[in-house]
Amino acid sequence: MLDINGLEGLSLAEVMEKRVEKTYIIFCNTDQSRWYSKYLKKGFQHCWVLYFDGFNWYKLEQTYNGSSMEMIVSLNGFVFTQWQNISRYYKNLRGYTVVEVDRDKLKEQCGDKLRSPFIVVGSTCVEYVKDFIAVRKWWCFTPYQLYKQIK
Question: At residue 43, what are phi and psi to the nearest 5 degrees?
Answer without folding.
Answer: 85, -10
